[in-house]
Amino acid sequence: MQQTIATEITAENAFASTAIASEVSGETWEAMYALRHAADFLEHASALIANGATISDPEVVDHFRWGIMKAFEFNNALSEPLRGDLSRDCFVGCAGGC
Fold first, then answer.
1. What number of other Cβ atoms are within 10 A of residue 4's Cβ?
2. In whole angstroms, what is the distance from residue 59 CA to residue 45 CA?
3. Angstrom distance (rounded) from CA 94 to CA 98
4. Which regions of 1-98 does DSSP assign to beta strands (E)?
5. Max CA separation in the chain (angstroms)
6. pTM > 0.85
7. How far apart are CA 98 and CA 88, in angstroms?
8. Using one digit for the tens of pLDDT, what is the confidence trace for 32-88?
């Protein structure tokens, strides 16, 4: 959580370089970044909680909601047969928790 801006830029550039080398482009690129940003927002929300924020803290809730929005963007990028109802399909096969 204590990353500097320079460290974040370096990590982002390395990620983008890897994707470019793999020839990721177009809609796949957009879906990839939606998924990456979903993870970033959710990680930030959990780090806030780990550092003492409550789950109802406005900043926690804001980051959680942005993370979910980005997850929906990724879901919407999937082809129709793969796209799921996230409120229903995420927990199929997760007996006892995921």
1. 8
2. 8
3. 5
4. none
5. 42
6. no
7. 14
8. 999 999 999 999 999 999 999 999 999 999 999 999 999 999 988 988 878 876 656
Residue with tokens 């998924």: 35
Asked if 35 and 70 count as a contact pair (C-beta separation under 8 A), the reply is yes
- If phi > 0 it is left, if psi is from -120 to 50 it is alpha, else beta; for residue 97 that is left
Token pair belonging to 85: 């109802």
Is the per-residue pLDDT at 1 higher than 50?
A: no
At 63 the pLDDT is 96
Surface-to-core class of residue 25, CB atoms within 10 Å of its CB (0-12 exposed, 13-18 middle, 19+ buried):
exposed
Query: Which token pair is 62?
Result: 């804001």
Place of tokens 């927002």: 41
Residue 9, SS3 per DSSP: helix
Structural tokens at position 4 = 């500097």
Check residue 93 and give its pLDDT.
54
